[in-house]
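User: When convenient, might I ask for sequence and structure tokens for a protein?

AI:
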Amino acid sequence: MAHDEEPIRIEDDDARGAVTNTGLRYVLGFSLALAVIAMSAIWIIPALWG
């Protein structure tokens, strides 16, 4: 049992319960960029034609 004065040390992967560097941020960034481009195209193209 740990004393109240001692800090508890837990590694990052153990605390998160996951592995980092899986490329998830790239997938999220790519999908965000595609969403912004698609929404911009939906708004800009009709504005140019009308």
Residues 22-49 form one domain. The CA atoms of residues 6 and 14 lie 19 Å apart.
